[in-house]
Amino acid sequence: MQDERFAELVGLACHDVRTPLATIGGFAKTLVRSGQLPERESRYIGMIDEAAEQIHELVDELSLATRLTTGSYTSILTDEDTLELASSTAGERVAVDGTGVSLETDRALLTRALAALAAAALRFGQVEAVAWSVEGRDLRLSPVADDAAPILDGSSPRDLGALLARIAIESLGGTVELDGESLRVSI
């Protein structure tokens, strides 16, 4: 009961922070777009605007974690292919290979989670690239360096995105676990 009350408190705080944050971001954008500020001041206001956007993203993540934890999040389920889901996280430093399978899931929630796990593996593992290997409903992310392992398995809560990814995947009925030098996500 105490955890649920805390989650409700965090959810309320996230809601209440949005209005002043929108004010900061709105005025910063207005000042930058006015073109009336000297270059140096315009650059500083731009930095304030970027920081406001980052805070907004963090508040959104906290709010989503709260809704998932309290059961108030409603998934929008669609038929998706697991290889396609993993491929949506691919980029310059994230490769994908394997064979997918169709399943009903929340595409937005799951792709956000997979992208966050890959980003944490890159950032904390200090590796040049990672890859998702897809075999049906099992996705393996590798390599998982020793420094990244406790962050990805949740034992060292140092990355909000990775923690939210775990909560999201588990809320969809999946699992996340370390398996040697890879992270196994079953969905």
Task: Describe the structure concisely for a colleague.
The protein is α+β, with helices and mostly antiparallel strands and 187 residues long.
Descriptive notes:
The protein has about 190 residues and is an alpha+beta fold. Helices cover about 55% and strands about 20% of the residues. It has 6 helices and 7 strands, in the order ααβαββαββααββ. A 5-stranded mixed sheet has the order 2-4-5-7-6. A hairpin with a 2-residue loop joins strand 6 (about 175-180) and strand 7. Helix 2 runs parallel beside helix 6 and helix 4 (about 105-125) runs antiparallel to helix 6. The two termini are about 30 Å apart.
If strands are numbered along the chain, what order do they take across the biggest sheet? Answer: 2-4-5-7-6
The overall average pLDDT, rounded, is 93
Helix content: 55-70%
Strand and helix order: HHEHEEHEEHHEE
Poorly predicted segments:
none
The radius of gyration over CA amounts to 19 Å
Alpha plus pi helix count = 6
